[in-house]
Amino acid sequence: MHSATAYALLLIGLSIALPAAAKSSDFSEWLEAFAAEARQSGISQATVEASLANVERIPAVIELDRRQPKEPGDFCGYMDARLTETRIERGRSMLQEHRALLHRVSTEYGVPARIVVALWGLETNFGDYQGEYRVIDALATLAHDARRGPLFRKQLLAALQIVDEGHQDPAGLKGSWAGAMGQVQLMPTTFLDYAVDYDGDGRKDIWSSLPDAFASAANYLERAGWRSGQTWGREVQVPASLSGNRRALAKRRTLADWREAGVARIDGGELPRAAMRGKIVLPAAKSPDAFLVYSNFETILRWNQSTFFGISVGAFADAISQAASLRACRS
Question: Does the global pTM surpass 0.85?
Answer without folding.
Answer: yes
